[in-house]
Amino acid sequence: MSRVLSLLVALCLWASAAASQELSALARIDLSRSEITDKGRGVAIDLVLSHPVPYRVFTLDAPPRFVVDFNEVSWAGVSAEDLDRADRVLSLRTGPFRPGWSRMVLELDGPLALSEAALETDDEVRLRLTLAPVSPEEFAARSGAPREARVLPEASTMPAIPRRQSGERRIVVVLDPGHGGIDPGAEHHGGREADLMLGFARELKEVLLRAGGFDVVLTREEDVFVPLEARVSIARAASADVFISLHADALAEGRATGATIYTLSEKATDLASQRLAERHDREDLLAGVDLSDHDDEVATILMDLARAETDPRSDRLADALVKGLRDSIGRLHKRPRLEAGFSVLKAPDMPSVLIELGFMSSRRDFANLQNPEWRQRAAEGILNALADWAREDAAEAGLLRR
Fold it and tell me: What is the pTM of this model?
């Protein structure tokens, strides 16, 4: 069964269910009668729902995953431990995907593909999905997010090219709280990176607005998943002068502590930076976003030309943030200025940085991230850095030929 045929099966099931009962959110899982179990050499997914909802399925490779999107199922009170009893399922993740949609992702111990699918609506609403082994080559050929599952900005009339800020207007700052929704980010000491960064982004927004001279946009205002490419599109739609992605990672190895400022590099500064970049990219792939497309030669040249101006501005912004944070919170990471290939920093047309405020794997850093006074000082340090950078950037803009 090809990937296209798998999608057609799902679509036909939608139509069949719609004919017998209206499809509407919000469906709930009957946990007492639902389970995911091993079935021979494959896996059986058996979910009892409160009512029918549209769904679609697809697989992703490296690592092998089986993804089910629902419109919409509530996962409240449903834990992976309660639902997953299959040895062939290494991990199970559920949660909101985007408004109106939720997602279930099974990480598999090998290549398994959809072999049977049924949405029964007679005596009860039961979704049955069966996965069977396939060869690694067949799995790779059939894997990939269906185009319908991608969350891309809707086509719209392109606005006029924004002029570089010259000190004559407010600076548009886009704050990007990392992760969210199905992607909680780092989890350590009972905390979630997605929650901590959303809270800090809201506090930083208030500090910038009270200071005056800034307009602030958040890429997400709640605990929802926003794909990396959509985050950059939000910034571009806001005509951002600055893009700041906020994170607080955790490292299984080592005792790293302190804030770090990243700018874009195709080659990570060190191994830790490379691992962090790979992790952020993987989370995006886990949610079904395909970042493997390559730009054609002309587009690449145009982006390189844009980066020739933008990259030095990003470097100056990062340097200003190091100074501002050091003055406000004191000790930073032993190497506070690093480079990595984070996808969220790849916009060629706006200065972009990623701030790791600290490491959740460090008890001291984690305590700081939970301390309102420390967060206030950190926000003021970022404010001062942005103000200093904006003045220098505006002065340089005045020297450029118009």
Answer: 0.63
